[in-house]
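User: Teach me something about this protein's shape.
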Amino acid sequence: MHRRTLLRAGTGLLAGGAALALPPATLAGAAPAADPTDGWTQTSFTYSWQKPWNLDLSERHSYSGGVHRMWVYADDEPFQEGSSTDPRTEMRWKVDYTTGNHMWDADVYLPSGTDGASFVQILRSVHPSGTPATDIMLNVYDTGGGTVRRYDGTVLKTGAYDTWFNVKIAHQAGSGTGTVKVYFDDSLVLTVDDRGPATRYFKNGVYDHGSGRAEARFRNIHYWTR
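Assistant: First, the predicted structure itself:
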């Protein structure tokens, strides 16, 4: 199945376009909210690159001052010759898992104009036939000063363009249905079920489902387990 179809199919689990209320500000004298990483252990990880198969990585990625900058064009080739998937420049984390608690953590910067691109996802590399290929994808759209959605449905953030914000995705995976939580700047913005048992891994970068040029930047990338 083409990945654009999978992208659209992902919205059926939640009401499309419904904005999520963010937690209220901490009142004076009240105890601060717990850090999402409390009780977690920072863990080393490695990754490989996926980029247009006919280009050198340096043509779609740069690294300077601790910032990974990744971009792609809608008419670029896919990551493998003959693939029907959309073009991408992504880090493919080489930490495959089936169960346990795993968290992706990074500061993200989405430049103006990036439209219809995924910038982080949990991909289900081995999954039962007929089940989705991802547990979650976060996409940005060129509305509202940069609107971040779960797939192309639930709104998680507006005004996301041209500013750094922290994103954490915590996955409690089990032998049945697990739970995915998304935090922006350490505030919980989404809790959803995953798509059931699978072997999966994190990916981040820019996976372009739209038109034109798409870009995403990342810094302070961490992996947590518990």
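Now, about its shape. The longest strand covers residues 213-225. The CA atoms of residues 40 and 144 lie 34 Å apart. If you'd like, I can walk through any region in more detail.
User: That's plenty for now, thanks!
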